[in-house]
């Protein structure tokens, strides 16, 4: 592994529970079922990261992991629109907004998007928030193995056009490890800023 000493730090459901805001961190977000946990698993080569975040009671929390000294990965909660109540969505919005507005160590967001769905309202909210606080976004257009090569290329072009210059985007597949090297390079580039 690139991060032999990687480990879980803490879960937060309020800013007072965030870990000390030093060093660098990269956040990972995605609408639920987009494939975020699978992407984290292969990128950091750490199965227990995503498992920790999927533990009942932790799925609505911000989960902090140390990758190495002063370099963290932060797994942000996602949700599916059909599944949550208005109050859950409001709490999510508030917590995420506080996180993005306060975090000095935040260097970038990896946004995991299911290639068959494209950008959702959930993704647009995060893109707007990142734009407002000047945090760069890199989109992983995941599950690209589910489409034929030509279809995946078209979907990539469509999302790239939709994003314009608000984010960079690449094809990804946790299953086939497509785009894994590029995703790791992007993670490291964010962490080194
Ligand atoms: P999360 O809710 O965003 O963390 O999503 P998961 O990582 O749990 O993935 C949701 C579903 O999509 C699971 O059934 C995964 O096996 C599947 N999945 C995730 N990534 C891929 C991928 O790259 N290719 C394919 N074919 N399936 C994937």
TrEMBL record:
PROSITE patterns: G_ENGB. The keyword Transferase does not apply. Its cofactor is Mg(2+). Residues 22-193 form the EngB-type G domain. GO terms for biological process: division septum assembly. The keyword Cell division applies. Belongs to the TRAFAC class TrmE-Era-EngA-EngB-Septin-like GTPase superfamily. EngB GTPase family. This is Probable GTP-binding protein EngB. The gene is engB.
